[in-house]
Hints:
By secondary structure, the chain is α+β, with helices and mostly antiparallel strands. Helix content is 36%, strand content 17%. It has helices at residues 2-7, 17-32, 63-77; strands at residues 37-43, 48-53, 85-89. α2 (17-32) runs antiparallel to α3 (63-77).
Amino acid sequence: VADAISGGRPGARHEDVQDYITRLTDIEKIATSYEEVEKAFALQAGREVRVVVIPEKISDDELPKLIHDIAQRISKEVMVPGAVKITAIRETRYSESTMTSPQN
C-alpha cells in the first residue's frame, strides 16, 4: 500500500530523459503560441509554468482568461503527472539616469 501511495506522487517513477524534455518543450510551445506571451519557462518537471507576457498586448484584467486558456490546452495536449501551476508575469519598468556636471 505504501509503495502504491508513494508511486502515485507526480514524477515519483523513473521517466525517460527524452520524454521529460519533450514534455517541457511541449508545455513551453503551448504557452508561447499565444501572441501576448513573450517567454515561457516550464519548471519543476513541468508542474509549474512561468509565463512572461508583453504588457502592451494584454491588460491585468485579461490575464486570468489567458492563463485559463493555457492551462486547458496543457491539460488536453500534454501528459503531465499531477497538477500544473501557471503563473503570469506582467511587468512594466521605467528608469531614468541623471548626469552630474563637473563642478569648477
